[in-house]
Design a protein that fits this description.
Order of helices and strands of chain B: EHEEHE
Distance between the termini of chain B: 10 Å
Shape of chain B: globular
Number of strands of chain A: 26
Helix content of chain A: 10-25%
Largest sheet of chain A: 5 strands, parallel
Shape of chain A: globular
Distance between the termini of chain A: 21 Å
CATH class of chain B: Alpha Beta
Structural class of chain B: alpha+beta
Strand order of the largest sheet of chain B: 1-4
Number of domains of chain B: 1
CATH superfamily of the largest domain in chain A: FAD/NAD(P)-binding domain
Oligomer: heterodimer
Radius of gyration of chain B: 11 Å
Chain lengths: 397, 64
């Protein structure tokens, strides 16, 4: 099976890259396996970075991903420089040339930056890496004032973690409600939950500038209000690390464009996995999308690692519906499918006493997402339904 | 083989349930229940569950 692949290079040493390496070995690959990562850390899991690590119930050691006797050549602390498909070489930023038969691109995303006035002041943070989380934690002490710009996953989770630490928290977002992908009704519930736990929410408002001399002192909002701050977190979402692929001649639109087998649309020797891979969504009529969920990265890595060893015709598609979760205060939010594409999400079951609900979303008359609050078992019932799309596109190439 | 779930880590994501419903199940109040003794022919599915558990709570204890 592996005779045509002797050198597999995986670019990216986070969850998707690790799972790809493990899957390739598990499938019997005995050739040269190189994993390249720009961070110095061995692979770690990111969800605790905005929650348990910040709140102090886990340490950085707890975030290490288990390697399970993986045999690989790790090249850490060096970013990828460029991809030369004609020569079948990955060139690292330090000039090292690595030859490959197949390459898996898993360089993920970075926190989106904001370049307005004051962005470089001390006390202004973004959160993506382990080092980011440790730096933010050092700045979060009881009684300090944290302003979070962005009420998405990271912003809302950090708000909850910071409240646990006794930090005064204000969350600002240009959107009308927090957790935008969950729609207006669930978003309003999230807003009430945060306010109930003492978070000041300012929705429908942008930021003009971060004010201060050396350290941050306040955030100037677009409605003229100045929000006093000791610490600022810019939680503006993520953008894919694809710049290094410019000139490689692969198709990049939403991300690295792939077919359902996570193979590049232009080169069968190039595959992609995780946050930067845009692949056709059966639930969205085959539209290619990037999805930045933990489980997508884990599943992608496994699929891409196996497929990289195979002839393009023999490769298997990735089919399971996207799943994400978010823990905020006493609520576990879980979602299956594509809630961000639903025309709206309707609450179909509710048990207020336990803070439990189930919402479903449709698009063009067909179920596209289910979202639960503290409702894991009921949500699970929807996984099969969302995996079996009516047009059978789950297996489409 | 024996399947072990660290219930201090498990947060009822249900990924394992969707992969191996014959082994894992979400019970009352969303608490995970599972069969500890699993036949060898289910190894691939259990390994997949180990891989996609967001809490890294599942492990396989091999015998002998």
């Amino acid at each position: 099976m592996n005779s045509e692949v002797e050198r597999l290079v995986i670019v990216g040493a986070s969850l998707a890259g690790l799972r790809a390496a493990q899957a390739a070995r598990k499938a019997g690959f005995e050739g040269e396996l190189i994993v390249v990562g720009d961070e110095r850390h061995m692979p770690y899991t990111r969800p605790p970075l905005s929650k348990e690590l910040l709140a102090g119930s886990q340490t950085s050691e707890d975030t290490a991903l288990r390697l399970l006797k993986l045999e690989a050549d790790w090249r850490l602390g060096v970013p990828a420089g460029r991809l030369d498909r004609a020569e079948h070489e990955l060139i690292l930023a330090d000039g090292t040339h690595l030859a490959y038969d197949r390459v898996i691109i898993a360089t993920g995303c970075r926190a989106r930056r904001w370049r307005g006035p004051g962005a470089e002041l001390d006390g202004v943070h973004t959160l993506r890496s382990l080092d980011d989380s440790l730096a933010l934690k050092r700045d979060l002490q009881a009684g300090r004032r944290l302003v979070i710009v962005g009420a998405g996953f990271i912003g809302c989770e950090v708000a909850a973690s910071a409240r646990k630490l006794g930090v005064e928290v204000t969350v600002v977002d240009i959107a009308p409600h927090p957790m935008l992908p969950l729609g207006a009704e669930l978003g309003a519930r999230c807003a009430r939950m945060h306010e109930r736990h003492g978070v000041q929410l300012r929705c429908g408002v942008g930021i003009e500038a971060i004010l201060g001399r050396e350290s941050v002192q306040a955030v100037a909002l677009s409605d003229g209000f100045e929000c006093e701050a000791d610490v600022v977190l810019l939680a503006l979402g993520a953008e894919p690390n694809v710049e290094w692929l410019q000139g490689a001649g692969i198709e990049i639109r939403a991300g690295v464009e792939c077919d359902a087998t996570l193979t590049s649309t232009v080169d069968p020797d190039v595959l992609a996995a995780g946050d930067l891979a845009a692949w056709p969504q059966p639930l969205a009529g085959g539209q290619a999308m990037r999805i930045e969920h933990w489980t997508v990265a884990a599943e992608h890595g496994t699929v891409a690692g196996r497929n990289a060893l195979l002839h393009p015709e023999a490769r298997e598609p990735h089919t399971s519906p996207p799943y994400f979760w978010s823990d905020q205060f006493d609520t576990k939010i879980q979602s299956v499918g594509l809630p961000m594409l639903a025309e709206r999400l309707d609450v179909v079951e509710e048990d207020p006493e336990h803070g439990r609900l189930l919402a479903t979303g449709e698009r063009q008359g067909r179920l596209i997402a289910a979202v639960g609050f503290n409702n894991a078992r009921r949500l699970n019932d929807y996984r099969t339904e969302l995996a079996d799309t009516p047009d059978g596109a789950g297996a489409a190439r | 083989m024996k399947v072990h779930v660290d219930m201090n880590l498990c947060q009822s994501h249900g990924e394992c349930v969707s992969i191996a419903p014959d082994v894992f199940e979400l019970g009352d109040d969303d608490v995970l229940v599972w069969r500890e003794e699993v036949s060898e022919d289910r190894r691939a599915a259990i390994e997949e569950a180990v891989n996609v558990c967001p809490m890294m709570a599942i492990s396989i204890e091999d015998e002998g």
